Amino acid sequence: MSTSASHAPSCRACGTLLHRTFVDLGMSPACEAIVAADQLHAMEPFYPLHVFVCEHCLLVQLDEYIRPEHIFSEYAYFSSYSDSWLAHAKAHAETMTRELHLGAKSRVIELASNDGYLLQYFAALDIPVLGIEPALNVAREALRKGIPTVTKFFGRELAQELVAQEVQADLLVANNVLAHVPDVRSFVAGMKLLIKPGGIATIEFPHLARLIEGNQFDTIYHEHFSYFSFLTARRLLAGFGLTVFDVEELATHGGSLRLHVCHEEDASRPICDRVHELAWREEKQGFARLSTYASFAQKVQATKRQILQFLIDAKARGRSVVGYGAPGKGNTLLNYCGIRTDFIDYVVDRNPYKHGKYLPGTHIPVFPPERIRESRPDFVVVMPWNLKDEIQQQLAYVRNWGGRLVVFIPEVEVLE
Q1: Which residues pair with 23 in a beta bridge?
Q2: CA pair distance 183, 195, nearest whole angstrom
Q3: Which of 84, 113, 380, 416 is the most buried (most CB within 10 A)?
């Protein structure tokens, strides 16, 4: 599928007009635009979830339908409500502190530092830290933890301001933010400025290869502007004088990459075999060819039909269905499939910020987790399927009344 030239957006990495569709998920509200009770009858904006692939550089991307300040100035996602994510952050802090010999004269800066979930572990080791987080409500939580935080969007301009104040990073961390940035060129240029000579950055993002392989269409939403293969990410960074010298393949968020990056002029960090091996593997899998991106949409449409059939059958048998978790990915899935309270009675979430409110678009109510024990549903749909092992442990009691847990991605599965 392609678009007409008069309506084609431009690739945010190379400027080429975008004509080739990767997948079109229709119209959807902003995934974290949780709805208060007194807003239920107000107009709710919906925007296209039409994803393109650049025919020149092969960056998969969503056009900037919503300005970042409308998404991130007041944000409903707090990183610290996932125990497994906190453990992941703590392990990374300990590893980097040891490998880079970080101490009281070092500085760790995190871009999109959220509620201080990561920097708190460096601060506990008396390592100076600085968070950069544009969402004021989330940044307030970091400040409450004693994490110094700049509440601005990061890019070349802010990096220049910080460098002028002699603020640079021995370790610059960018976890799950590169995909959230519409102006990736300014963002990466700012990273280049903010890394000290001899310093490094670590960059984590969901891996496009895992998205396609795992049918993870629900990870597509308006705050994710770009979807990176290793090849496209490495090419983007190299264009600004940054070299990927190591890469880790992680299980987080359904399959992520962690790039270890240094200045291209830093000869002290040789490129390791894992970088060469992953580049070779992606080329073999076809991520350097446009044709590889063509079949994803058909797989997504088949999954939508499977999900709806499961829910129709459950309701026809008089079964009750609820959801666990109110993440952005769940809202993409619910709106794309047209699932409202006719199929899912309610969802629960550990984040008290969402309690008493409603999911965007579908207006499914959000309650504390205790609601499941009270109502004893037949099926609990685990919306954050990437945390299903953690959530299975939390919801072990559901089996006491014969309830079952279900995931919808990569396909409908009733968990044993």
Answers
A1: 51
A2: 19
A3: 113
Closest CA to 201 of 242, 167, 166, 241: 242
Residues 6+ apart with CB under 8 A from 224: 62, 179, 180
* Cα(47)–Cα(31) distance, integer angstroms: 10
Listed as own residue / partner, the contacts of 272-276 with beta carbons closer than 8 Å and 24 or more positions apart are 272/245, 272/246, 274/246, 274/247, 274/248, 275/234, 275/244, 275/245, 275/246, 275/247
318 Ramachandran zone, left/alpha/beta (phi>0; psi -120 to 50): left
The arithmetic mean of pLDDT across residues 391-396, rounded, is: 94
Mind listing the pLDDT tens digit for each residue in 110-119?
999 988 999 9
- Report the pLDDT value the prediction gives residue 4, as an integer from 0 to 100: 46
Tell me the C-alpha distance between 375 and 347, whole Å: 12
CA 33/CA 45 separation, integer angstroms: 10
Three-point CA angle 330, 335, 341, nearest 5°: 85
Q: Of 112, 122, 127, 124, nearest to 89 (Cα)?
A: 122
Sort strands 404-407 and 379-382 into parallel, antiparallel or unpaired: parallel
The closest alpha carbon to 46, from 219, 303, 221, 307, belongs to 221
Report the range out of 43-47, 169-173, 176-180 with the highest average pLDDT. Answer: 169-173
Helix (H, G, I), strand (E, B) or coil at 44: coil
Bridge pairing between strands 20-28 and 47-53: antiparallel
- pLDDT score for 254: 79
**How is residue 283 written in tokens?**
């080329």
Residue 71 has pLDDT above 60, yes or no: no
In this structure, the chain runs to a length of 416
Using the predicted structure, report yes or no on whether residue 70 has a pLDDT greater than 80. no
Rounded Cα gap, residues 239 and 376, in angstroms = 55
Indicate the Cα dihedral angle 230, 236, 239, 243, nearest 10°. -40
Q: What pTM value is reported for the model?
A: 0.87
- For 282, phi and psi rounded to 5 degrees? -65, -40
Return the H-helix or E-strand segment holding 402: none
